[in-house]
């Protein structure tokens, strides 16, 4: 249990600091609200009213989002592979080439579907 004590103390300090920051910000922060501050902000563009169902997003949005997720997952697997590259040898190289090839297939699919072209 003594080995975990510093980790628990650090976790308690982090949680205490987070709670303290949120409470103090609400207590001593400015409270001058107006309609402009409470309005939705969409990158400098006036917000448009949405339909009752919430509106539909174009498929390009989802394709691009999935592409970013795929590349994030690829990076997560590339770092440990790069660290242990010497120990894996040719087998690791072939496996990573196959993995990168599957990621490239997803990228080519999104590119072919027009997910990277914005009107």
Q: How would you portray this structure in words?
A:
- The protein starts with a helix and ends in a 6-residue tail after the last helix.
- The model has no long low-confidence stretch (mean pLDDT 83).
- It is built from four helices and no strands.
- Helix 3 (59-83) runs antiparallel to helix 4 (85-113).
- Helices cover 69% and strands 0% of the residues.
- The longest helix has 29 residues, at 85-113.
- With 119 residues, the protein is mainly α.
Short recap of the structure:
With 119 residues, the chain is mainly α.
Key terms for this structure?
119 residues; mainly alpha; single chain; 69% helix
Low-confidence stretches: none
Class based on secondary structure composition and strand pairing:
mainly alpha
* Helical coverage, percent range: 55-70%
Helix and strand sequence: HHHH
Radius of gyration, Cα only, in angstroms? 24 Å
Number of helices: 4
Shape: flat
**Oligomeric state of this protein:** single chain
Query: DSSP strand (E) fraction?
Result: under 5%
Alpha carbon gap, first and last residue: 59 Å
How many β strands by DSSP?
Answer: 0
Average per-residue pLDDT, rounded, comes to 83
The main pleated sheet reads as: none
Write the layout of secondary structure elements.
Elements: H1 5-28, H2 35-38, H3 59-83, H4 85-113
Helix pairs in contact: 3-4
């Amino acid at each position: 249990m003594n080995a975990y004590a510093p980790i628990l103390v650090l976790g308690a300090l982090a949680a205490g600091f987070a709670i303290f920051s949120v409470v103090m910000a609400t207590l001593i922060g400015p409270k001058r609200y107006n309609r402009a501050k409470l309005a939705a902000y969409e990158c400098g563009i006036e917000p448009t009213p949405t339909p009752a169902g919430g509106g539909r997003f174009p498929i390009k949005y989802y394709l691009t989002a999935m592409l970013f997720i795929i590349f994030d997952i690829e990076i997560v697997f590339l770092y440990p592979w790069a660290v242990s590259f010497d120990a894996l040898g040719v087998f690791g190289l072939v496996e990573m080439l196959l993995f990168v090839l599957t990621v490239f297939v997803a990228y080519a699919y999104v590119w072919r579907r027009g997910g990277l072209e914005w009107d």
